[in-house]
Write a structure and sequence with these properties.
Elements (H helix, E strand, L loop, with lengths): L13 H17 L6 H8 L3 H13 L3 E6 L9 E5 L4 E7 L3 E8 L4 E8 L4 H19 L7 E5 L2 E3 L4 E4 L6 E3 L1 H9 L3 E5 H12 L9 E7 L3 E7 L2 E2 L30 H5 L1 H12 L7 H16 L3 H25 L3 E5 L6 H10 L14 E4 L6 H15 L15
Parallel strand pairs: 3-6, 6-10, 11-14, 14-15
Antiparallel strand pairs: 1-2, 3-4, 4-5, 7-8, 8-9, 11-12, 12-13
Helix pairs in contact: 1-3, 2-3, 4-5, 6-12, 8-9, 8-10, 9-10, 10-11
C-alpha cells in the first residue's frame, strides 16, 4: 500500500542539472563584477573542469566574456570572468498614469529610460511599448535585446501573460503576452509590478536579503502591495493574486464593503490617503489623481524633512498604520527581511522608528532581533528593473529559484 503524505522532491534529470549549474554560475557573476574560474568553482562547489565547460558554453551563447587578467601569485595569471556588457534587456512598467520603458544591463543597471503618459486603452498602451522596444532595438541592435519584460498593477497571471484584473476598470483579461509576441516576434514575460520589484530588490538591491528564508517587499504608492520570496522563489499564490497587502484591515470601521474597506491599508497609507490626510489637517482638501497624488506625496515628504509640523504629523500617522500592517506580516510569515519602497521612504529617519515600534520584540517572537528592515536601495526604479530582468531570469534560472550568493547546486 502506498502511504499518503508529502510528495517526495523531484529528482533533477541530467539536462536540468546542467541548467541549474549554468544558472548558478550566471547568478554569481550577476552579483559580482568579476570572478576567476577558481572563485566560481569554490562558491558553486563544482570542479574547475566542470566550471570550464560551463563557462565555454556560456561564452558561446554570448552571456559571459573574459575581461582582463587577475593578479598573479606566481605562475600564469588566470582570466577574469564577467557578464557580457553587450547583452541587455528591455522592460516596461505600466502604471495608471505613466508607462516607463528601459533597457538594462545584466547587472540590473538601467542604461536608458523613456516614458509616456499611459493611454486610455490597453491596446494603445501596448502599441506604444512595442514601438519603444523597436526604437531601442534599432539603436543597440535587435540581437542584444532578446526577450521583453512587462509589469503592471493588478492581478497578473504570469503563466499565461495576462493582466486578469487591472487597477483601471476597463483593463480586464488583457492578453499582454499574446499581443506583444504577435507584434514583435520576441518572447514576452509578464508579472505584477510589486512582485517584479521584489525580484529586483532581492537580486540587485543591497546584499542583506540574499539567503534570507522569507523576504518581503512592500510597495506604498498609488496602491499598497507586497511581494514575497520564500527560499529564493517568488510566491504567486494559487490564483496568482498573492500580495494584496492593501486590503489588510488594521482599523475596524462601519460598513459592508469587502474591497477597499475604510480601515484597510489602501485607504490609510496610499499616496492618495497621504494627500487626503495632509489636506484635512491643513484645511486644503482636494481630490488627487494617481500621478498628481504621487507628486504631491513627494512634496509632503519634502515638507516633513524641512520641519513642517503638519507634514510630519501626516507621515507619523501613516508610519504607525504601516507598522501595524507589517507587524501582522511578521507574525504571520515569520519574515526575516522586509524592504519598503514608496515616497514615504524619503523621510526614512522619521518613519523607520515609528514602523519598528509596532513590531514584536525578540521576547515575543524569537528571531525578530535578527530581522532586517530598510528602505529600497533602487530609488523608485525597483519595478522597472524587475520588468527588465524578467527575460534574464528566464535565462538564468532553470530551476525556478533565484540563486543566492554562493548557492551550491547538484554536481
Amino acid at each position: 500500500m502506498v502511504k499518503q503524505g508529502f510528495a517526495p522532491k523531484r529528482i533533477l534529470r541530467p539536462l536540468e542539472v546542467r541548467g541549474a549549474n549554468r544558472a548558478a554560475v550566471l547568478h554569481l557573476l550577476q552579483q559580482n563584477d568579476y570572478l576567476s574560474r577558481a572563485d566560481v568553482a569554490r562558491q558553486c562547489g563544482l570542479s574547475e573542469g566542470a566550471i570550464s565547460r560551463i563557462v565555454t558554453a556560456l561564452m558561446k551563447d554570448g552571456l559571459l566574456r573574459e575581461d582582463g587578467a587577475e593578479n598573479s601569485t606566481g605562475g600564469r595569471p588566470g582570466r577574469r570572468l564577467a557578464l557580457d556588457p553587450r547583452r541587455m534587456s528591455f522592460g516596461a512598467e505600466i502604471q495608471n498614469w505613466e508607462t516607463r520603458c528601459a533597457i538594462s544591463t545584466m547587472h540590473g543597471r538601467i542604461v536608458e529610460t523613456r516614458r509616456f503618459r499611459t493611454p486610455a486603452t490597453p491596446e494603445d498602451t501596448l502599441e506604444h511599448v512595442a514601438e519603444t522596444f523597436l526604437a531601442f532595438s534599432k539603436e543597440v541592435g535587435r540581437d542584444r535585446l532578446p526577450g521583453i519584460g512587462i509589469c503592471a498593477r493588478g492581478i497578473v497571471n504570469s503563466e499565461t501573460g495576462t493582466l486578469v484584473l487591472g487597477s483601471r476598470s476597463d483593463w480586464r483579461k488583457v492578453p499582454i503576452r499574446k499581443f506583444l509576441e504577435s507584434w514583435l516576434r520576441e518572447p514576452v514575460l509578464v508579472e505584477n509590478n510589486v512582485r517584479a520589484a521584489a525580484l529586483a530588490e532581492y537580486t540587485h538591491g543591497l546584499t542583506e536579503p540574499l539567503g534570507r528564508r522569507c523576504f518581503v517587499f512592500v510597495q506604498v504608492d498609488e496602491g499598497v502591495g507586497m511581494g514575497v520570496i520564500f527560499d529564493g522563489k517568488l510566491y504567486h499564490g494559487p490564483n496568482m493574486a498573492a500580495g494584496e497587502f492593501g486590503q489588510m484591515v488594521v482599523q475596524l470601521a462601519s460598513g459592508d464593503e469587502r474591497h477597499d474597506r475604510p480601515g484597510s491599508l489602501e485607504q490609510l497609507i496610499s499616496n492618495r490617503a497621504m494627500c487626503a490626510r495632509f489636506g484635512e489637517m491643513s484645511g486644503t482638501k482636494r481630490q488627487w489623481n494617481g500621478g498628481d497624488a504621487t507628486t504631491r506625496a513627494r512634496r509632503i515628504v519634502e515638507l516633513a524633512n524641512a520641519g513642517d509640523e503638519i507634514a510630519r504629523k501626516t507621515l507619523e500617522q501613516i508610519a504607525r498604520f504601516l507598522g501595524a500592517g507589517i507587524s501582522n506580516l511578521v507574525w504571520a510569515l515569520d519574515a526575516d527581511a522586509i524592504v519598503i519602497d514608496g515616497p514615504l521612504t524619503g523621510a526614512w529617519a522619521l518613519v523607520e522608528p515609528l514602523i519598528r515600534r509596532q513590531l514584536p520584540d525578540n521576547a515575543e517572537l524569537w528571531g525578530v532581533r535578527n530581522m532586517h528592515i530598510r528602505a529600497s536601495a533602487l530609488g523608485g526604479d525597483a519595478a522597472l528593473i524587475g520588468a527588465a530582468i524578467l527575460p534574464l531570469n528566464m535565462t538564468f534560472s532553470q530551476t525556478g529559484a533565484i540563486g543566492p550568493r554562493g548557492a551550491r547546486v547538484p554536481a
